[in-house]
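Hello forum,

I keep getting stuck at the same step: I have a sequence, I want structure tokens, and every attempt I make locally crashes halfway through. Rather than fight my setup again tonight, could one of you with a working pipeline run this one for me? It's a single chain of 106 residues.
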Amino acid sequence: MPKISKAPDYQTVITTFEMTPGTCQDLLDALSDAYESFISKQPGFVGAGLHVNDAQTRIANYSQWTRREDFQAMLRTEEMRERNRKIATLCKSFEPVMYDVFETFN
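Reply #2:
Ran it on my machine without issues. Output:
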């Protein structure tokens, strides 16, 4: 499960996807399958969440990793490269960005 914490314990990655309502469910299915069968089993994976807007034109993916290098190693695997090629056909764009947590509020 993702933990939002100011402590530098995790590498946070937020990926945004832009798509049409017609491909939203297909993209959610592809992302869910990637997490369930591959990504969640990779070294350093902590947790993730998928969020979709009400117009079904954007998906935000929040994931956490033990180290930046763990996330990068997962992206370089042949399986993830193949999955990302398929994902790219389902959306207009997607961009993973690594973040450090600046502050949290309760």
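The first strand starts at residue 11 and ends at 18. If your local run keeps crashing, start a new thread with the error log.
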